[in-house]
Design goal:
Amino acid/polyamine transporter I, transmembrane helix, 439 residues, 18 helices, 0% strand, membrane, Serine/threonine exchanger SteT, mainly alpha
Length: 439
Amino acid sequence: MEKQQLHRGFGLWASLSLVIGTIIGSGIFFKQGSVLQVAGNTTTAMWAWFAGGILTLASGMSVAEVGSQMAKTGGIYHYIEQLYGRTLGYLAGWMQVVFYGPAMMGAISAYFGVLFVAMFDLPSHYSIWIGMAALACVGLINSIPNRFSAGFQMVTTVIKLLPIIALIVFGLFFGHHDALGQTVTAIGHTSGGGFGVAVLATLFAYDGWVTLANISGEIKNPQKTLPRAIVFGILLVIVAYVGVSFGVYRSLTANQIASLGENTTLAMATNAFGYWGGRLLSVAILISLLGTLNGKVVSFPRVLYAMADNGDFLFANIFRSLHHRSKTPNAAIWLMIGIAFLMIFFTNPDQLSNYAVFVTFLFYILVLAGTFILRKRDPQGLNRSFSMPLYPLVPIVAIVGSLYIEVSEIMHDFQGVLISVLIVLLGYPVLLNLRHKQK
């Protein structure tokens, strides 16, 4: 019997939209105040947004080089398995399937519900159900041929870019303040942390680019398309984020931004375009969250599918199967959505996703270090369709930046680090059980 194959429905534009659409969620709209507060002044904050983008770009180029040589569904699960062996690869996949992926889906869905009820003045207890309904709808879109999820990603990405362009243009041409050199002096809003912590604060807004690597089996010509989409997607996001920040600093004073906090961009949009302008921005943010959620639902179940295809998951025959018409891994999609539903009901998925940052970056570091391993294995680059510029500086920057994040996490949330590590290690006895059954 011929093995079912994933449908390669993601071309360059759809892949580019997945990168941009998954990165740009709510962070750029809600992180302006917190980044400025810890930076202390607009110049440092602007450099922090730029530095966070450069660190993300260095990581993206490094992973793109690895991915161009391992164009197979599964992303870092597949990369780490090929670089370091089955055990570490399995733990990387386990982390994404039962912990990080569902927590991210749950957190985005829950946040969508909160914003939705606030916008339409609905009772707050409806937020959970609205968030779950949004996740279910995105799940349905992903359960039919992937040209629909790819199209949905492109549409939501275009829509979410419109308010970003409007904020940049307004700030550039109609702002009345000096974007650089302003200092936060408001009482009760003293800065703390400086440049390093400010960069760390921006990385939440830059997260999500690596999800494209999980769907290599559905990308047309992945050896060339994946590196291009990751690199150009991150570059566009850097321009958007730095541009929005510059526009905000031109439109509002540093003290106003620090006081407004998460409401900074909403206040700017309302001042610039009136009441309905603010409402339209809120609608754009909701659509932006749907696009980000779609990126997660497209990406993470493919890791489960890849693990099951390798026999690295319980009930592998179920989760390696594809729907006979849509060629999508529907069993994997709905299992992860089900776990996300449980997290929404019984835990705080946003907190769990924060806990997962530490172990996620541990596995990122392993992939980044893999660039040196693959260069040593193939010094002539015969199997390398994409070679990053400025090697070895680029992966070194990415690794040092990621190590800084790890140290910061240990210092700021040691309990969360322990919880995340324990959850990942719970996958090891499952792996031992699978190996025993396979003997």
